[in-house]
Amino acid sequence: MGQPDQRAKGAGPFTTQLTWHPPGGGTATWESRLARRRGLIAVHPPGAAAPHHASADDTALARLRRLNAIAATAFIIGGALFAAGAAVAQFGSGDATTCASIYFAGGLFFNTGGYVSLLQVINAPRHVPGGEGALVTRRWRWWSYEPTRVDWLSAFVLFAGTLVFAVDLLDSFLQGLTVQQINRLIWAPDLIGCVLFLLSGHLAIVEICHGRPRLLPHDLGWWITAVNQLGSALFMVSALAAYTRPATGSLINADIANWGTLTGALCFSCGGILQHYERPDLDSGNGAANPTADRTQ
């Protein structure tokens, strides 16, 4: 890491927590998700009984709050529309075009949430290893390529998954397809999108757990990640059940496909609701913040 007094945690090539001794003494600890979502870094001054959380500047905090609100709202609406589309399909209150239209609208919100999540990673305040324990705000960027960062990789894979889902949702408007075309143009992108969602969720778990998955029931970020990963797993169950048998032209199990989509979508809506509370506190300024503010009560 460049300095012998630094201690790092993470998995493989990814560093998700870094602790070092600032020149002024004491310790500073940077955690990837805490800095990215709440703009905080833990600083333990010499002689202090307990560490406090120092905030990034007001510009960075306002930026993080704005991006977090947009992404969370997009996932809430997108999940709600997907659940509505599955309900229409399950209970027979509309035709295939109606279901496809509802799903497509939900997909647009998922696209928005995925890209804004990536923007949140790209424009998050950065730490300065070996410094006094501060977060630095960089200029605004619409894109970056940082595959060695687990948070960037998780957000990028999520966004890629939403784009693959968009292919599936667009193809679902096509009429007169053969069974082979349905499985190739609609089912295959759906399955690939689910795989990408699961991979993104796994990387998010690696980030928040600093490596091996474990239970963190008092951590709000862990609950958001866990709920979203459950939604991804239910989407995968739905996709597997939605495969069209070439011999009969029917789905493996339409009920499981619809209910998997409905319950998985509700998980993403719940994750979005929880995400609204994982945000910076603007009134904390550059001073100390409540060290337990990122935990559930």
Largest sheet: 6 strands, antiparallel
In one word, what is the shape? elongated
Distance between the termini: 35 Å
Q: Which class do the helix and strand fractions yield?
A: alpha+beta
Strands ordered across the widest β-sheet = 1-2-3-4-5-8
Strand element count: 8
Number of folding domains? Answer: 1
Helix count, per DSSP? 7
Instruction: Work out the radius of gyration.
Output: 21 Å
- Low-pLDDT stretches are 284-297
> Secondary-structure element order, as H and E?
EEEHEEHHEEHHHHE
Measured as a percent range, the helix fraction is 55-70%
How much β-strand is present in the residues? 5-15%
Mean pLDDT over all positions: 89
Walk me through the structure.
This protein is of the alpha+beta class. The chain has one domain. 56% of the residues lie in helices and 11% in strands. It has 7 helices and 8 strands; from the N terminus they run E-E-E-H-E-E-H-H-E-E-H-H-H-H-E. The protein has helices spanning 32-38, 58-91, 96-122, 150-171, 179-209, 220-241, 254-275; strands at 7-11, 14-20, 27-31, 40-44, 52-55, 126-127, 135-136, 288-289. The strands form 2 sheets. Strands 1-2-3-4-5-8 form a 6-stranded antiparallel β-sheet. Strands 6-7 form a two-stranded antiparallel ribbon. A hairpin with a 7-residue loop joins strand 4 and strand 5. Helix 6 packs antiparallel against helix 7. The chain is elongated. The two termini are 35 Å apart. The model is unreliable at 284-297 (pLDDT under 50).
